[in-house]
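We modelled each protein-ligand pair independently. The example shown here corresponds to the zinc ion entry; the chain sequence is given first, followed by the ligand as SMILES.
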Amino acid sequence: MTRLLILALLIFLGYTLVSAVLRSLPGRRPQQPEKRTGKRSAHGEEMVKDPHCGTYVPRGEAIEGTKHGKRLYFCSRACRDAYRHGSS
Ligand SMILES: [Zn+2]
């Protein structure tokens, strides 16, 4: 009986530790200003440059847009719209 309780406690502690470590890992930020519309992609994918603000974003998470028939990728819809409506 006591052994079961200790086991349960250990599992709980292990789970808490693992989730804390996962949350503190750099790179994957849970909150993003814009909702992603693209497909989720595997790690280590191609990075594309946002021509409006110069940020590099994973292709699967980028917002797609076209201008003068050219395919472009943006970090957010705000950037895409700003780039589209901007001059040149
Ligand atoms: Zn941007």
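The pocket of zinc ion is lined by residues 50, 52-53, 55, 74-76, 79 (CB under 6 Å).
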